[in-house]
Amino acid sequence: MPSIEYLSSADWVWQAFTIAAALFQVARNTSQRTLSDRISAIGATYVRFLFGLPVAILWLALLFPVFGWHMANPGAFLMWCLIGGVVQILGNGCLLLAMRERSFMLAVAYSKTEAIQAALLAIVLLGEAIRMGVGVALIIATAGVMMITLGRGTLREVGLAGALKSRGALWGLLCGALFGYGATLYRAAALASEATPFIAAAYTLITVLLIQSVILTIYLVVRAPQTFAGIRSSVRLCLFSGAMGGLASLCWFTAMALHTIADVRALGLTEMLFSYLASRRLYREGITRAELAGSVLIGGAALALIYVN
Predict the structure, then answer these.
(1) Cβ–Cβ < 8 Å for 243, 51
(2) Has residue 255 got a pLDDT over 90?
(3) Which residues are in the EamA domain (predicted)?
(4) CA distance 34 to 289
(5) Is there a smaller number of Cβ atoms within 10 Å at the N or the C end of the chain?
């Protein structure tokens, strides 16, 4: 069996967790679309947190015999988890507001600037450096995401001025900033624990999911109690969505505990490519030149990033 030191330092490990996270997230997003129609968007978000919690607990139980127990700085760890959990909820709120705008795809495209914003925040807050090759790959992959997202003619519909001034773009950028900030805080929490990266990621994920589940439970009890009846009537779909969300999150958290934000978020943009390919297979739609070019850019950036590392 490979040593803990090897598993914590080998590039293929964080890369494998990142690719797995992107694939699980596509499955989660697909199920959440259906769930949102049945129980509301906020209810689907709640399911993601609450039903993902058992997956995280099981993962931690499996890790204990191998990696042991360690927590160096619980005060700082809890602070970063609390702030990060709240920030992610706010990011989801901004995404919901962005989805209400006319230029829906434009808003989503702007939200995908999360990767670049997370990398910049990691420089400021964590002192992480971005290598030239990683920075170029990150920019290329983000450009590819934008091309795929806007490939259905959104820019022609709203025009360049509208793309820059729309409220959807504003909410999308704010969503990307909050998600990027949250990712940086989660890595800060993992580093504060000073545990083995695998254990640190599990601690962080469980703590964050608990915080988010409690906050949203209180919110739903007060503002939308009917959501719980919807969850009971769609329990199988909720279990699947929660499991996929839990697996995606544990892979994201582990990758970010093992490696720098910029690298993980750049490679993680392959999520958009997987999502795009899945939708093509499910709905048998044609492909535009912009979408094809965007796919090539994302794939090329991902391969370049793996080569650089």
Answers:
(1) yes
(2) yes
(3) 16-149
(4) 29
(5) N
